[in-house]
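quick one before i forget lol
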Amino acid sequence: MKTAVLIPCLNEEEAITSVVRDFTEQLPGCVIYVYDNGSTDRTVEVARAAGAFVATEKRRGKGNVVSRMFADIDADIYVLVDGDDTYDAAAAPAMVERLLSNNLDMVVGVRDHKDEDEAYRSGHQAGNAVFNKFLGVIFEKTFTDIFSGYRVFSKRFVKSFPCLSRGFEIEMEMSIHSITARLPVEEMVTTYGKRPEGSHSKLNTYKDGMRIFWTMLQLFKHIFPLKFYAGIGGVLALISLALGLPIVGEWVITGLVLKLPTAVLAASIGIIACLSIAIGIILDCVSKGHMEMRRLEYLNFTSPAVICPDCCPKDNSDGGAIVK
């Protein structure tokens, strides 16, 4: 089996050597790919000297880099990790084994920072917790750490993932994709450490937080248009009723419409509410068609259980794959 380690990078001169070396040691035979996103330091030279295959993605944003990696690289198992040396390479073999033995499409490395409180900024922790809860509310399922940058994927996940995000919202899109496509996914606790001296986070807590929130709403609208537009239509219908019922009551009693502008406004809002619900119904049919096509694309690729049957259980008594 070919295992590819994907490392998106931006100005990680101080950390990239350690990341490449550690994953090479922990996953013998793997190929390390470092995709630079316009570094102004010596990240490219250092990564190449460490033995990684180095390429460049000029479009700024982690989502753009991951999209390019998923399109360019062909492998059976993909390990995605940040180039800042905060994730534990020693956990990679266990994560790969979990993916294969349980016939999964994604294993998420949940960050455990108990011994390194400074490694995970409090603002990021709070934001992660809020978005995890919010994801559970609108998509009816959630993760412990939807923003973890440490993940192991099957080929069929990578090659069926649309990858629409351009920035740090890419991890959230991966999580939502696995939920909506009903893919088998598990989480695994991994150690999360501090960055080396001279390495700095590129995540802006507030700016990127708002972008992530907006992307989540956009994905909700795209995946569940009926819920989205029916919700808007329901609110508008309530407003229309609140404005129109008193006028209808006056008309029943007096036979006159005493507040014509309000009556016109109530009727107009009611019409818009009906149109919103109708739009939701139409787009829901389109969305289901897209989901069916995405599912068929996913099924075009072989399960890890077929590629590596010796790694998988021989029966499904524990929920694993059945291998003939």
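fyi The first helix runs from residue 16 to 26.
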